[in-house]
Write a structure and sequence with these properties.
With 408 residues, this protein is α/β, with parallel strands linked by helices. The protein is built from seven helices and 18 strands. It is 27% helix and 27% strand. The chain has an eight-stranded mixed sheet with strand order 1-2-4-3-5-6-8-11, sandwiched between helices. InterPro entries: AB_hydrolase_fold (IPR029058), BD-FAE-like_dom (IPR049492), GDXG_lipolytic_enzyme (IPR050300).
């Protein structure tokens, strides 16, 4: 127990210390393919876990590094393949392409395998498969954090670890970034059967926190997973996706699949709660239109890569991308109370970190729709509930972190 606590403390200290440094993006690095060659290390073991067959499965990844790179601390992008949690592998065509192209920019990239399989085909088992896969991705993040804290073989900057994926892999990354409370896991999944959200796939004692999520044709099981202060989000999704809905629906359109929320509704939700995000909508495009070698598929690959590239690079110039942003949000955050409330009024109290100034404010519902606008003109303001029904709402005020309001 004491050893575990010491490892955790050391990992957090490393994160906080390294958060003060930015990534150097000069000379076209992370924008142009300045490395013509990429070194690929195959079948690196990053953990192990019990799979659906009851066997202990070694978890493997392929590592992509810019050949000849001399930078001491580099950003990392961890990617996961598609396959509906039933099939697929880490060296599929698209994973190879995007990991190679990002490495040519200067990133270290990793394409991971994860535990596959579920039976019977129902909501509970699909949900469990997605949680198992996300546990494996968390172990991959911890694997690299452990390396950054010990041998430094991969020369990674632990404050700049990003996670993403395609289709099922995107589900994993979204869950890693936003599914952070056991209570958010649907009861029918029975999280206790799987352990914890972190899982036990390897490398305990290190943080699985990431700096941003790359969501390619993925979805989440609940919009309320996205909350104020969460990490930035990049989404690419086709509007004609019949496998993972662009808006709201069920995977493959099948009734056995749980209700899921695609990129088209993730964006307004992220906007409503103040999460920096981008969405590249591919009009009329099907599921994973970038996966293949036809002229059209290659064009979609280019668009997807460019979207991810242009999303990630500005984050590298923000010192302590995640930690400093969270600290700043906490210092500036207004207080909303009581939460939850059954009263006819709730109160806003401005933070004392800066002088109060009047500002416009909005109240949004869980779908991101504005249900009320008002002027916040004094440090402590009573806000009448009026006819608002019970539910979760979000307070958005100019230049301030978004806050949650729960009416019962």
């Amino acid at each position: 127990m004491m050893k575990h606590l010491l490892l955790t403390a050391l990992a957090l200290l490393l994160l906080l210390t390294s958060a003060r440094a930015q990534i150097d993006t000069t000379g076209g690095r992370y924008r142009r393919p300045i490395f013509s060659q990429v070194t690929v290390t195959r079948a690196v073991a990053y953990g192990a876990a019990t799979n659906i067959a009851g066997s202990n499965q070694t978890l493997l990844l392929d590592l992509y590094e810019p050949t000849g790179d001399t930078v001491r601390r580099r950003p990392l992008v961890i990617m996961a393949h598609e396959g509906a949690f039933a099939t697929g592998n880490r060296d599929d065509q698209f994973m190879t392409a995007i990991c190679t192209r990002l490495a040519q920019l200067g990133y270290v990239t990793a394409s991971i395998d994860y535990r596959l399989g579920f039976f019977p085909f129902d909501s509970a088992n699909i949900g469990r498969a997605s949680i198992r896969a996300s546990q494996d991705m968390r172990a991959a993040v911890r694997f690299f954090r452990r390396d950054a804290a010990t041998t430094r073989q991969y020369r990674l900057h632990p404050a700049y670890v990003f996670a993403g994926g395609s289709s099922a892999g995107a589900f994993m990354a979204l869950q890693l970034g936003y599914l952070d409370k056991p209570a958010e896991v649907p009861a029918y999944v029975d999280l206790a059967q799987l352990g914890t959200l972190e899982g036990s796939s390897g490398n305990p004692g290190y943080s699985s926190q990431i700096a941003a999520v790359v969501n390619l044709c993925g979805a989440v099981g609940g919009l309320t997973w996205l909350e104020p202060g969460n990490v930035p989000l990049c989404s690419v999704h086709g509007t004609a996706d019949a496998v993972v809905p662009y808006n709201i629906g069920r995977a493959f359109g099948q009734s056995f699949s749980p209700r899921i929320y695609g990129s088209g509704v993730l964006k307004p939700r992220a906007d409503a709660v103040g999460i920096p995000n981008v969405l590249r909508t591919l009009r009329g495009a099907p599921h994973v239109p970038y996966d293949g070698t036809t002229a059209t598929q290659v064009a979609y690959t280019d668009t997807t890569f460019q979207t991810v590239r242009d999303f990630l690079r500005p984050l590298l110039r923000q010192p302590g991308t995640v930690l400093s942003a969270v600290a700043r949000h906490q210092a500036e955050a207004p207080q909303v109370y009581p939460v939850p409330t059954t009263e006819d009024v709730f109160y806003l109290q401005a933070a004392t970190a800066a002088p109060f100034r009047p500002r416009q404010a909005e109240l949004l519902d869980a779908a991101g729709r504005v249900v009320r606008r008002f002027r916040w003109d004094q440090p402590r303001l009573a806000v009448p509930r009026g006819a608002l029904p019970a539910g979760s709402y979000y307070l958005r005020a100019d230049e301030l972190p978004v806050q949650r309001v729960i009416l019962q």
